[in-house]
Amino acid sequence: MRHSTIPPGRVCLKACQHDLDCRSRKKSCLCDGICGLSCIKHNQGCEDLRDIPNGLVEAADNCFGTVARYSCDDGYQLTGDPVRVCQGDETWSGAEPHCLLDLNIEKVACGRPPEVNHAVHNGYPDKVTYELGTMLQYECLPDFTATVKTAVRAWCVGGGVWVGPSMTCTHAGCPHLEEPENGWVNQEPTNTVGSRVVFHCNRGYFLSGRAQTTCLTSGSWDSVPPSCEKVMCAPPPELTHATHDEDPERLVFPSGYHVTYTCAHGYRPDGEARAVCSGDGEWIALSLLCSPQSCGFPGDVLNGWRTGYAFTFPHIVNYYCHEGFELQGVGHRVCGAEGEWSGQVPTCKPVTCPTLFAPVYGKMFGSGNKFGTVIRFECNDSYRVLGSKERRCQADRTWTGETTKCQEINCGWPTSFYNGLLIGENTLAGSVIFYSCKVHATFEGDAFQTRCLETGEWSEPPPLCWGQCQVPNVVDADWINRPPNVWVNHNTSVEFRCKTGLRPRDGLRMRCNNGTWTSTAECLPAPCESHPPHVHNGMRVFLGNEHGHKAKYSCFPGYRLYGVNGSYLQCHYGDWVGGRPHCEEHHCPNPGTLPHGKILQVDNYNIPSFIFQSYITRIRHGDRLVYKCNVGFQLSGAGGATCVNGEWQPPIGDPGKVCVPARHPPAQKLWIPTTNIRA
User: Which of 122, 328, 573, 580 has its CA 20 to 30 A from that of 366?
Assistant: First the structure.
């Protein structure tokens, strides 16, 4: 099972449960440590491991799953992972461990010091034990040298272990080398370690083996001396359109060998035909060039063209004809090996079309039926050409256009026109038709007649016959510039004037449009130009200003309507008639005097303010009065009245009956209050 947390840098491959989950025969479902079951390649591996300083590593190989085990030399202690495993992401698990000096080891003496080939140390040769901390110095024997960057000391450390040296003593030089046969060698008088020797061969020979060798520390050369073998050439070069006289299967040729070349059939030689194998292993002296035979100019074709501009063996030229021509003969020529063209130059002859004849009732101009021939056709008088007037013979052996026929020309009757007549007998070519307009219509056009042309069309289009209009007799109107019942031409305008109190329905101007008036001449009663007059202290009600409409008048309370018959004004032929309405204020009569009492006027605060005098005459609508009886009298009936539209309400009756004697007169005071006096 794959862990939930994966260390940084660790890459887990595709998870799986079975090999089939990997979808590849090159992978298997294997356990990959903390990644669990994963798809692993069969040949997957990790990089090779190296021994660690003062220790070593042991591993069977570096394939997936291999276990590497680390160990340290005596006197050293392993720090880190002692075991590492090759993982699925091609890395080793963990980190490389280290071997550190073990300082806790028991302190004992060291045995004999390490031996180094071809070297001695500065200790006693017969001494077998050395104390801890002893340091020995090593040096190489004569004729031997130590390698660069090596440790030349040995140190006795805890646990009886010698540390060092790590040196190698090599021989001082190599033996002298002899010159190879048919060659020589460049070398120093003394071949020290690292010296290089270079070998050379005489001309005509080549070096077989390494050209250089180096002196090793062991005193031997790093390679076997080469030999000088005779130079050989590769197969001779290939020439275009030529072959040589040697076996084509042979692969090598000794220096000095020569071959001879021959040009192929149809090609002429030019230059040196022999090649020689030189001492450098190259073929020399050959300069042969095989040029094709020339056949000269092949010729051109009349009414056609030629393709191909190479006139040498084995080229081909082709011939073609222009449009309308066909090739007679072979359409190509080949330049032969002997320098001659095959066959003859072909010819181009024009194609032919079927023979044409003159149409019935017509003539044909031109003759022949070869490509490019043009034939023209004409028809007799009163006939016209149907089809093509001219036809040309084409490259596909057909004539251009359509079959030519002659048809009798008939223009047909001209298009009928409004308010007009056609006068004539027939419509064939040359016939004349006259145009005429009907009564009360005016003629407008370029001509009064038209002729049938050879094109089958009329020479002049039909005219326009504009209908006239009759001036109507209008009741209650007078015509200004035309008397009634006369006829006027199209587009003529007339004016009329309605009599007093009337107005026109559609305007005072009429225009004749092809026999029809654009508007109607009719006079209607005129409306009133303004609204009915206002009335002060009153109101009016009306619906409009049209003829016959009425306006109703009424006055505010306390006023009466005067100056009008009834209560209406009426719009009559442009004027409001029925009088001059106005509202006049209507006062109540003075109530006079009240026997045994007084009449008081009530103010705006409903308080009796003053006594009505006999000279007061302007008593307005809404004014009020109250009765006040003298002592010994009492009211009989209403206690007052109000002026309503010029009348008292309730009506004032007999003034002598308003205050009547009281039945129980008030008692007189029998005593008078006095101040309390004490004696």
Answer: 328
Q: Indicate whether 254 and 314 sit together in one domain.
A: no
- Residue 19's φ and ψ, nearest 5 degrees, are -60, -30
In sequence order, what are the beta bridge partners of 259? Answer: 275
Give the chain's domain count: 10
Q: How far apart are CA 651 and CA 641, in angstroms?
A: 7
Record the tokens describing residue 238, joined without a space: 């290939």
* CA atoms of 260 and 239, how far apart (whole Å): 12
Contact predicate 373/349, CB 8 Å: no
Domain assignment present for 356: no
Question: φ and ψ at 21, to 5 degrees?
Answer: -65, -20
pLDDT digits (tens, 9 = 90+) for 19-47: 888 877 788 888 888 888 889 888 888 88
582-608: pLDDT as tens digits: 998 888 888 888 888 888 888 777 777
Residue type, 637: G
CATH code: domain of residue 484: 2.10.70.10
Asked if 471 and 485 count as a contact pair (C-beta separation under 8 A), the reply is: yes
pTM, full prediction: 0.32
- What's the one-letter identity of residue 204? G
User: What would the DSSP string read from start to end of 316-364?
Assistant: EEEEEE-TTEEEES-SEEEB-TTS-B-S---EEEE-B-PPP-PPTTEEE
